[in-house]
């Protein structure tokens, strides 16, 4: 693996550190260093939200305090990830320059306060950002203790949809549209404005979608989402250029799950390494399996963005403070949850936060160091134990990464479009659909990548594209080429419905030739109208969305499953067609979990993507596979109970080389790391 | 029956047609004509939402394209209902003239976009509307293919309550109030403003009810609702005058169910024929009965508004796109649902929409022609079959109409007032109460009219007035005269409480003499305090609202049912008093369905309003009766299963004259049309 | 007892009277006098909401009409409580002076209308208030029939949180902060603004907490709540000074339950007597116990504010009109509910309202006199019977009051802070927690006072402080002194977490020495993670909040109860430590009701605070104890059924001296008033 962070090429352990809150308590800062060493913390993030300390009045910069802290950390073997401070604006700026504050869809300018609330278009904000970033870079960009730039913080995380509707954003949006469509005729056609007399006759008539204006022109909605993502990405790029003016360090920005407003696939190329903030809702359900699956999917997305290891930049060592009920992680779960990240490709376990703040809104968010009790807490002890273990495994793990043979299509533009539709049902739940298709792989211990429609599909043996409503230009051809060359492709209901501008694709489905089927209606059924499909001798319940399709005679599609009742009884629910050297599947309806499990078990076998663990994993246990230096298996037990399993071979435990084979007992929430022998 | 549409006096089959979306695809327009003929479409609605095509820039009019389409349709035997285009405003207008856009209760002017969003008071909007309507009428008002004016579209359908709170509306409201009350003293008394020191001392102090201002002065609330309905009606009248300047065609406007903001009884006189848009939620419940009842009630309202046949101007051939779950109509239900309209008095089956639009917000709303598959769809085949059947029955059906002997009072002003009350409970659910009283008639196969308090009651043998809270001036006397002359009247709990200005009527109930009872308290009971009433040897559960009344000694009321428990056990729940040649009933409380069924079965018999089918209809089956040319019975099976029934006589099937008698089997969702032999 | 209302030192019976609505109906006013005498009404409240009648145009005052009514009442033996009219502003004022209207958090100025909607800061409002109050006082402040000033009405009851966000309030807030913090450095430290770069560099940057500005700076939130309460209290004080300019009468203002925005403990000293408006939701649950407990707690709070009798200034004789379902009080409950007030220390039973208004928003709120039926209603009869009984008992009751030996800490500042926290769970439900601790006392027939953290604790044998999150300066020392001197103190989970500015108290719990325990984590558990504690041989379920603490070795705390499962099984759930002459308890978690019942039964016995009835009361029955002239017991049966009980001694019924002892039968909803023999 290419060394991204070449100053400190090891697993990182640490987290967000906010000494600016304690500058008048030097004994606290002393204690921090001591406790960090006790917990084997080797890296902290500094400067997030420090603008008011770094530039307390406009143009007056103070870097001494932060340099002294970086020095002290470095002297003690602790490296720094240095943040640009744009996550929150100082009061002097928001008071003086109104335009830096976001405007709501209702046209109301925000008052100062909170965070992540600046206008990404505002020239003044960009100017002030460049100035502070330049200064930061000039003063600290070559400090030997600084290893990575942390660009801003959780871009777009203003609690709503990240958008600003101010006049400057409106104007920038119009410019962006002009660049894209060239003429109003093109735009009017693309947005189908003849409907409801919405034809634009002047660029100035265009306004962002808002509740008290235009909100149901789906082409406009989609382009607005693209613009917002673009504008934030552009701001991020401008931040990066600013810090790189006096520095050659790698850059990252911390992402948030599948954050809907930002198309992270477009952010990835401009970053040196992907990082993200991981806050699963452990203990919120009767067991941890669904949360584990969802979290594994998030990690997999982060790894997929650059097909490379990433950093878990934030996680809580105990609880968060923003859930309805903030439950402590049970003993062992912190270590498992942290190593799950590593299992999926993370090269770090970083926390928000090192020390609980004394006041304000996150004072009850979990931290390594609490308000009371110093190092004498369960959390501190569990963090320390994990820190020691990470030191032990760092050399073995660092050179490796996961290399999946299967991929699921997850495309932000499709997401925006499919969840904005009116009909066939409300709440199309794209994420949940993706997860339903991801879970069978997790249960089989098969790592999966995510790709979007622009990615290369070659190299995967299986590609599934659930609820793939919007087909970008060239996508259908790419899929056909992929299958022709031997790939296996799974299409579902409500796919290939619209083109890039959300206009319905007329006459024929773009993959009609590939799939060999013709779809006639979509039936969205209420709960009381149950149906089922018969597949391999079993009956499986259908969900709400059910397409009614017909095999096109003579086109070669085989029916593998059919509806069992209602007026479309006998219509195909699952078909397969051989095409070139590959095969294309079509799934007509939502189904219960068990069907997808059966489907993908068959496809895994058919396409040879299973691992040696596939078929042997007990409920709640999964494996992830990092390859490279060595062949490593992370066996993760998400059961809150001891669990028996049969190993498929003989392995050495990475920490101590102990040989393991045959039947073993996993402790509650245990994560074993095994090397192939 | 008087011929309203004398250019084409037949059942209409067709729907909304939007060729302006396809002007650059002449092959689509060609295909439309071919497919229309295949489905026996004989009439389409044109021009709804075409303003931006008809007047692309201010003062620049284009009628050629639409004339060519009307010509082409007419050449192919297809007639046109021509719409005024005010349903949506073009962008040039909303951009140039701010005042045409509605203002929210919060005082925020809407941004351009959506539809139905213009200010009904704005002089500029009225001027622009008159201009386009004049031009439309002058150019196309005498085209031989145009048979009817479709004035605007779904007035008031802006998604909220149809109101605009702009300064011009405020001023118009004040003028309307001055006209009504003459002096502030009158207004202050009517609105009881001494309460909470709300006395107005200048007309300019009056403002529409808004959340951050006055919202609990119920007299103001009621007058504001009257004003909004009046203002829209006035706008409609101005549209009508504009199109009739150069045209002698009949006029209609498409209504929406019981649309609360518009008092359709006041609209009716200015229209030539009533039309409405019918979107029942089929398949949303475990069976179709309640939806069928609700839909029959809507149809009955439309027929009642002019006591004449009406047009179903819109309906979906398959699904809508705005429900939480948009379920396909099961085979047969489309035909039944369409003929239900005819059974209740409609002379048309029109669809929204002929062809699905390619983009924007309604692209997934059902249509006769889908994005793909041309005529090769189930929907297309079902529409075609219905079109053929309508051609067969048109001559027989057209001259007839329903002529009910029973009526239910449904009064918009009462609705506004009773659902605005504070106490005795939230959500007085006027519509649901009306439906509860309508359903027993539907189950007995008895057509019912709706009347408001201004209508003539003579001519009906039975009038029920559920939840008739507000008594207009003269209403009590009208009821007494009606009963005295032999009528049967049913009053319920919470009736006659207030006068026209929502002031409580003091001292005595206005119908005390007629009913012979005195009401002392209203008990609104929570769910856990069950009670029941005994009636004809059976016990029936009561609902939440329960009046505690006493028979006035010596006044002649008989107690037919009494409460069975709690502190008002023994108090009357149902009384009857003979008065003149008639009888007056008083129902003291909400009850379960079964009680109303028993009550109205008795009253139907007592008043001789049953039909030959009454008492013989299986669950889910009803009949409607159109009289005139012939005596026609529409036997409608809303069961999704074959259903046996016994015919009460010998009938001829209208389509082919086949004789039917005795026991017959109705197919799932079958509608038989029978002529008396 | 000190005579507060020395003009008429008796139990009051009457209520709000609004003759200004009926000035044009003199027969109504005549009838009122007659009916008041029939119901034994001896006191009414006049002038609430009369501003528009008293000053119909700016500077034009009309006092004749109200003087004539006071005269007439007085001639008939009916006294007047005279209100200042600021509860609602006249239209001439709101129209002319915009600044008198409140501004919403969104920065929108309210339109005229409703009530309780004036800006408490506005100089113009204060000037106009002073003028009308001066005039009122000058004209009527020495009328022999007027016995008490009723200052305004339900301060802060604008339906939201009582606050105004206008520029004048912002400025006043900043001045208030300057006075409090002196320097921005102090303020920045107290609010911990270094977090998220929120440091203020100029006073003008400070703004009230609003949704589109700063909303999560908890120190700001808390100070804003303090300011709002202060500003309203200051307005009230200014009203009081204005009426006392020409009058020496006592003053009160009618409070509302535990009205969250107003710290009633701070209002109390400036009032002569406490009064409040009591609207329990009788019949909303399966039985009346929880409503009775909640209501008893409210009454107890009112008595505690001045440790003296209070007035129940409003209550409904039947129903209110603002609940989802407004259920009639069952026979007997009105008398019980009214005497419950007296049992808890009220010297009045006053109603809202004497006569139902004819129009506007409260026309369906219950009243003694209804729109119809005159005196011939159940409600009128029950009110009359109660009036007679109150005349009988007045002399006996008046000199007495309750004198509890136990107190519960209820502190408004703690309330504001604990319900504004983010983490460990949403909705900390302070009121419900307080009630959970109050209920066991109610069930044992033990009166309890409420105290806040500023109150003297000496004099109570037991003090419980549930969920006491915020410790004011000096509070911890006061508690230690109290226990040392022999008191018994109960601390719970999540206590002593922050100081007065919501900054976490670092290092040690302020009562660590007193309690002898150390708390390590808070686990907020979802419903499916049940746990239990073992106490005195029984197992009790825990609630959501569970602290994990450890006894500090050698510090002397005994473990009385422990968790029974999960990773903190065995950790203490209840501890006790002797300290000086007293004892301190620590409760680690929320529990089911039964546990608190067992806990306080033991503590009542241990501390000798039980009464002779404790342990003998059947379900649904409680007693209250008024002492002074005689030793009086109010035995209250909240069961809607006859209930047997055993009297602990021999008593004389106050009304007639009848001797009662041994086993007796209470009628449904009966309230017996017994004197010790």
From TrEMBL, chains A, B, C:
<feature type="binding site">
    <location>
        <position position="169"/>
    </location>
    <ligand>
        <name>Zn(2+)</name>
    </ligand>
</feature>
<keyword id="KW-0862">Zinc</keyword>
<feature type="binding site">
    <location>
        <position position="166"/>
    </location>
    <ligand>
        <name>Zn(2+)</name>
    </ligand>
</feature>
<feature type="binding site">
    <location>
        <position position="153"/>
    </location>
    <ligand>
        <name>substrate</name>
    </ligand>
</feature>
<comment type="similarity">
    <text>Belongs to the glycosyl hydrolase 42 family.</text>
</comment>
<dbReference type="Pfam" id="PF02449">
    <property type="entry name" value="Glyco_hydro_42"/>
</dbReference>
<dbReference type="InterPro" id="IPR017853">
    <property type="entry name" value="GH"/>
</dbReference>
<feature type="binding site">
    <location>
        <position position="115"/>
    </location>
    <ligand>
        <name>substrate</name>
    </ligand>
</feature>
<feature type="binding site">
    <location>
        <position position="119"/>
    </location>
    <ligand>
        <name>Zn(2+)</name>
    </ligand>
</feature>
<feature type="domain" description="Glycoside hydrolase family 42 N-terminal">
    <location>
        <begin position="16"/>
        <end position="393"/>
    </location>
</feature>
<protein>
    <recommendedName>
        <fullName>Beta-galactosidase</fullName>
        <ecNumber>3.2.1.23</ecNumber>
    </recommendedName>
</protein>
<feature type="binding site">
    <location>
        <position position="164"/>
    </location>
    <ligand>
        <name>Zn(2+)</name>
    </ligand>
</feature>
<feature type="binding site">
    <location>
        <position position="322"/>
    </location>
    <ligand>
        <name>substrate</name>
    </ligand>
</feature>
<dbReference type="InterPro" id="IPR003476">
    <property type="entry name" value="Glyco_hydro_42"/>
</dbReference>
<dbReference type="InterPro" id="IPR013739">
    <property type="entry name" value="Beta_galactosidase_C"/>
</dbReference>
<dbReference type="GO" id="GO:0004565">
    <property type="term" value="F:beta-galactosidase activity"/>
</dbReference>
<feature type="domain" description="Beta-galactosidase C-terminal">
    <location>
        <begin position="620"/>
        <end position="674"/>
    </location>
</feature>
<keyword id="KW-0326">Glycosidase</keyword>
<keyword id="KW-0378">Hydrolase</keyword>
<dbReference type="InterPro" id="IPR029062">
    <property type="entry name" value="Class_I_gatase-like"/>
</dbReference>
<dbReference type="Pfam" id="PF08532">
    <property type="entry name" value="Glyco_hydro_42M"/>
</dbReference>
<dbReference type="GO" id="GO:0006012">
    <property type="term" value="P:galactose metabolic process"/>
</dbReference>
<dbReference type="GO" id="GO:0046872">
    <property type="term" value="F:metal ion binding"/>
</dbReference>
<dbReference type="InterPro" id="IPR013738">
    <property type="entry name" value="Beta_galactosidase_Trimer"/>
</dbReference>
<feature type="active site" description="Proton donor">
    <location>
        <position position="154"/>
    </location>
</feature>
<dbReference type="Pfam" id="PF08533">
    <property type="entry name" value="Glyco_hydro_42C"/>
</dbReference>
<feature type="active site" description="Nucleophile">
    <location>
        <position position="314"/>
    </location>
</feature>
<dbReference type="GO" id="GO:0009341">
    <property type="term" value="C:beta-galactosidase complex"/>
</dbReference>
<dbReference type="InterPro" id="IPR013780">
    <property type="entry name" value="Glyco_hydro_b"/>
</dbReference>
<dbReference type="InterPro" id="IPR013529">
    <property type="entry name" value="Glyco_hydro_42_N"/>
</dbReference>
<feature type="domain" description="Beta-galactosidase trimerisation">
    <location>
        <begin position="405"/>
        <end position="609"/>
    </location>
</feature>
<keyword id="KW-0479">Metal-binding</keyword>
């Amino acid at each position: 693996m290419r060394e991204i962070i070449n100053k400190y090429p090891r697993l990182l352990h640490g987290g967000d550190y906010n000494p600016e809150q304690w500058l008048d308590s030097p004994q606290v800062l002393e204690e921090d260093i001591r406790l960090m060493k006790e917990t084997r913390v080797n890296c902290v993030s500094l400067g997030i939200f420090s603008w008011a300390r770094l530039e307390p009045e406009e143009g007056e910069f103070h870097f001494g305090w932060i340099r002294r802290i970086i020095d002290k950390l470095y002297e003690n073997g602790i490296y720094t990830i240095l943040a640009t401070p744009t996550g929150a604006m100082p009061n002097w700026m928001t008071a003086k320059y109104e335009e830096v504050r976001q405007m709501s869809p209702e046209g109301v300018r925000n008052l100062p306060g909170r965070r992540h609330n600046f206008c990404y278009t505002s020239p003044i904000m960009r100017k002030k950002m460049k100035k502070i970033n330049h200064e930061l870079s000039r003063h600290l960009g070559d400090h030997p203790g600084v290893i990575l730039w942390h660009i801003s913080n959780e871009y777009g995380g203003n609690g709503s949809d990240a958008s600003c509707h101010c006049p400057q954003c409106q104007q920038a949006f119009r410019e962006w549209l002009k660049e894209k469509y060239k003429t109003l005729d093109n735009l009017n056609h693309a947005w189908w404005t003849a409907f409801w007399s919405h034809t634009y006759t002047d660029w100035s008539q265009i306004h962002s979608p808002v509740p008290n204006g235009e909100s149901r022109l789906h082409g406009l909605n989609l382009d607005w989402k693209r613009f917002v993502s673009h504008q934030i990405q552009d701001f991020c790029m401008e931040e990066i250029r600013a810090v790189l003016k006096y520095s050659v360090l790698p850059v990252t920005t911390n992402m948030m799950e599948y954050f809907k407003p930002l198309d992270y696939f477009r952010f990835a190329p401009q970053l040196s390494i992907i990082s993200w903030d991981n806050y699963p809702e452990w203990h919120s359900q009767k067991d941890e399996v669904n949360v584990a699956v969802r979290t594994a999917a998030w990690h997999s997305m982060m790894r997929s963005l650059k097909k490379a290891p990433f950093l878990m930049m934030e996680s809580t060592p105990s609880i968060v403070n923003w859930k309805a009920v903030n439950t402590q992680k049970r003993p062992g779960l912190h270590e498992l949850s942290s190593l799950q990240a590593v299992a999926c490709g993370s090269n770090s376990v970083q926390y928000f936060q090192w020390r609980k703040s004394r006041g304000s809104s996150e004072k009850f968010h979990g931290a390594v160091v609490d308000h009371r009790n110093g190092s004498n807490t369960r959390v501190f002890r569990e963090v320390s134990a994990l820190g020691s273990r990470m030191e032990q495994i760092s050399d073995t793990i660092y050179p490796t990464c996961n290399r999946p043979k299967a991929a699921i299509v997850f495309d932000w533009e499709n997401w925006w479009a499919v969840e904005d539709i009116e009909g066939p049902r409300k709440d199309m739940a794209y994420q949940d659909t993706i997860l339903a298709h991801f879970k069978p792989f997790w249960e089989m211990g098969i790592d999966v990548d995510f790709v979007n429609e622009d990615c290369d599909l070659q190299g995967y043996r299986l590609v599934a594209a659930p609820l793939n409503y919007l087909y970008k230009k060239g996508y259908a051809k790419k899929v056909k080429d992929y299958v022709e060359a031997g790939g296996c492709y799974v299409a579902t209901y409500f796919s290939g419905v619209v083109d890039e501008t959300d206009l319905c694709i007329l006459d024929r489905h773009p993959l009609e030739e590939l799939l060999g089927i013709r779809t006639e209606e979509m039936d969205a059924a209420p709960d009381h109208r149950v149906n089922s499909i018969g597949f391999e001798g079993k009956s499986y319940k259908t969900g709400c969305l059910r397409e009614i399709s017909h095999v096109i005679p003579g086109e070669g599609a085989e029916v593998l499953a059919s509806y069992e009742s209602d007026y479309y009884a006998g219509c195909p629910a699952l078909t397969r067609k051989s095409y070139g050297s590959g095969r294309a599947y079509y799934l007509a309806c939502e189904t219960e979990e068990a069907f997808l499990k059966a489907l993908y078990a068959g496809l895994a076998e058919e396409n040879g993507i299973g691992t040696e663990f596939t078929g042997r994993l007990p409920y709640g246990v999964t494996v992830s596979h990092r390859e490279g230096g060595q062949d490593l298996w992370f066996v993760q037990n998400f059961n809150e109970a001891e669990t028996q399993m049969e190993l498929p071979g003989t392995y050495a435990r990475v920490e101590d080389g102990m040989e393991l084979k045959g039947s073993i007992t996993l402790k509650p929430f245990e994560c074993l790391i095994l090397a192939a022998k």
